[in-house]
Specification:
15 helices; 242 residues; mainly alpha
């Protein structure tokens, strides 16, 4: 289908001075990177001499110093207004935190050797504490305390079996407490208990009526011719309205 077009396409001749061809050449020059950098490449190929005291060099150095100083003090300028004065180092939170971190670090380093060696303790088997612990374990061990007898087969009417049963009954907790069964359910008054008697004695000791005797209950007769009584009578006559 395209064979005729592909064959005719190579035989078309367009003059080079047509407006379309001229415009395409101009566009090619505008978008050419090599043509765009031609003057710069020629300038680079030539030798140039720039003095150290030239204005552009001084300007570049000054700009570099200003930028370096600004970057160096940027963090300080940001935090300049955030600090609050503290009278002591303990009141400064950052210093307190640093001191606490240092203390923890020192404590960890101090106990490092102990933690490394605490799992490597070797105790001799014949030490006094080990022997005492073994003896205590033997005394409180239930296995050594109880020694089960062999399963003997005995007749139920043998004398030793009957005697053992009586001994077991006497030692049994149920038989030991059977005499208290008749007390279960019986009421009990606390009138004569030790606590009640103790409270009554305490009340008698703290009773003011028994401790003190009231004045009106005492038989007392005043003497009428004492100087105090005579003076009181004279004063009563002097201030009497009658």
């Amino acid at each position: 289908y395209r064979e005729a077009w592909d064959r005719d396409k190579t035989q078309i001749s367009i003059p080079s001075d047509t407006p379309v061809m001229l415009q395409s050449k101009v566009n090619a020059l505008n978008i050419s990177d090599k043509h765009y950098q031609k003057a710069w490449d020629e300038a680079k190929a030539k030798s140039y001499d720039i003095r150290a005291d030239a204005i552009p060099i001084k300007h570049a150095k000054a700009s570099r110093d200003i930028a370096s100083e600004y970057k160096y003090k940027e963090t300080h300028e940001k935090q300049k207004g955030h600090y609050i004065g503290c009278r002591t180092a303990q009141e400064d939170p950052k210093l307190s935190w640093a001191a606490r971190a240092m203390l923890l670090q020192n404590d960890r380093i101090y106990r490092k050797a102990y933690h490394d060696s605490k799992a490597q303790v070797h105790i001799p088997v014949d030490a006094m504490s080990v022997q005492a612990a073994k003896e205590c374990q033997t005394l409180v061990s239930d296995i050594d305390y109880r020694q089960y007898l062999h399963q003997w087969t005995c007749l139920p009417d043998q004398n030793d079996v009957i005697h053992a049963r009586k001994a077991y009954d006497l030692q049994s907790d149920n038989v030991y407490k059977s005499d208290l069964e008749w007390l279960r359910g019986i009421g009990w008054l606390t009138e004569g208990s030790v606590d009640v008697v103790k409270v009554k004695k305490a009340q008698e000791l703290l009773n003011e009526r028994l401790y003190r005797t009231r004045p009106e209950e005492m038989k007392f007769t005043s003497i009428t011719d004492t100087p105090d009584v005579v003076q009181a009578k004279i004063n009563a006559l002097q201030i009497s309205d009658v």
